[in-house]
């Protein structure tokens, strides 16, 4: 009976995370459009950071509980799920044309995060000190500064939005919903972490595997919904921007903040996970460079690769 009750609270936590993120992202995007922020920038910042809010609160809560391995598994698992499974599944349903030059710089930053983390894991013996977390945060805020400067430049040049700007009277409504969504995310994160750890203990699974599978899938549902909705409308830049922005936010900010709160433990399994993430990132880049798009076959390959990886992780935990 205990396991079923725990599963119920875990499911409720994930529902609150997903619904809270949905409300938060929609309200935040509305506020951004009110200030005439372009779609690509919204995808890479407001939506990307908003859909990664569950990872933030899970990372902070796990760090405070001393279970940083759960946070690391969640972040790396979310990035793998986003890039390999979500993008692959979206391309399998609707082929995606991608203009690499519009996202090249941001994609380079997204790749640099896992590379830096892997290098730190190989350099340090068993734990990454707090200074590693500080370094990640510094890199993230430097990137954020560049993005904000780009936004200001776009506004000065008079970049027009494809959608009509919302009436200013909706600003208060969006702010209210953003706060409500954030509250749901906080509560959902609390329930998810507590009950995910309990399930790991009951089933004899490591916190890393729970983070890579159940928690990563649950916290990535907002990205799944946004990417599918954007790709169906042909807004591929918004979809890809959301995934790239989420990847940058997860590694640099979430792990950076978690690492400042509590040093990051190094597990051999995480090195394998990061290696797979980098290999998948290279595969995605090759697909885009060769055909300038992700066709159904490439999407199929990415989905199969993710399922094979997931099966290996669960089998060899």
Count every helix, treating DSSP H or I runs of 4 or more residues as helices.
Answer: 12
CATH fold-level label = A middle domain of Talin 1
What is the percent of helical residues?
over 70%
How many structurally independent domains?
Answer: 1
Strand order in space, largest sheet: 1-4
Count every beta strand, where a strand is a DSSP E run of 2 or more residues: 4
CATH A-level architecture: Up-down Bundle
Shape: globular
Kindly provide the radius of gyration, computed on alpha-carbon positions and rounded to a whole number of angstroms.
19 Å
Show unreliable segments: 159-169
Q: What structural class is derived from the secondary structure elements?
A: mainly alpha
Beta-sheet strand percentage?
under 5%
Q: What is the arithmetic mean of pLDDT?
A: 78
Distance between the termini: 25 Å
**What is the H/E string?**
HHHHEHEHHHHHEHEH
User: Which CATH class applies here?
Assistant: Mainly Alpha
Tell me the CATH superfamily. NCX, central ion-binding region
Largest sheet: 2 strands, antiparallel
What does this structure look like?
There is one protein chain. This protein is mainly alpha-helical and 317 residues long. It has one domain: A middle domain of Talin 1. It contains twelve helices and four strands. It has a two-stranded antiparallel ribbon with strand order 1-4. A two-stranded antiparallel sheet has the order 2-3. The longest helix is centred in the first third of the chain and has 33 residues, at 2-34. It is globular and about 50 Å long. It starts with a helix and ends with a helix.
């Amino acid at each position: 009976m205990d396991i079923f009750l725990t599963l119920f609270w875990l499911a409720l936590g994930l529902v609150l995370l997903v619904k809270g993120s949905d409300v938060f992202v929609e309200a935040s995007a509305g506020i951004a459009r009110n200030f005439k922020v372009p779609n690509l920038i919204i995808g890479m910042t407001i939506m990307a950071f908003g859909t990664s809010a569950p990872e933030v609160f899970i990372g902070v809560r796990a760090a405070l509980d001393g279970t940083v391995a759960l946070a690391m598994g969640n972040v790396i698992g979310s990035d793998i799920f986003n890039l390999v499974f979500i993008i692959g599944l979206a391309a399998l349903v609707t082929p995606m044309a991608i203009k690499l030059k519009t996202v090249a710089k941001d994609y380079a930053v997204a790749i640099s995060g896992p590379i830096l983390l892997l290098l730190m894991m190989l350099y340090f013996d068993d734990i990454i000190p707090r200074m590693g977390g500080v370094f990640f945060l510094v890199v993230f805020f430097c990137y954020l500064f560049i993005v904000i400067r780009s936004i200001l430049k776009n506004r000065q040049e008079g970049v027009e939005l494809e959608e009509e700007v919302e009436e200013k009277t909706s600003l208060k409504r969006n702010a209210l919903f953003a706060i409500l969504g954030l509250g749901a995310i906080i509560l959902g994160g609390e329930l998810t972490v507590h009950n995910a750890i309990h399930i790991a203990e009951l089933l004899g699974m490591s916190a890393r595997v729970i983070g890579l599978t159940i928690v990563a899938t649950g916290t990535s549902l907002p990205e799944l919904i946004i990417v599918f909705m954007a790709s169906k409308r042909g807004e591929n830049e918004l979809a890809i921007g959301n995934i790239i922005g989420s990847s940058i936010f997860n590694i640099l900010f979430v792990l950076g903040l978690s690492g400042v709160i509590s040093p990051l433990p190094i597990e051999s399994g995480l090195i394998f996970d990061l290696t797979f993430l980098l290999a998948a990132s290279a595969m995605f880049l090759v697909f885009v460079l060769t055909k300038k798009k992700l066709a159904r076959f490439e999407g199929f390959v990415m989905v199969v690769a993710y399922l094979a990886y997931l099966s290996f992780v669960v089998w060899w935990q």
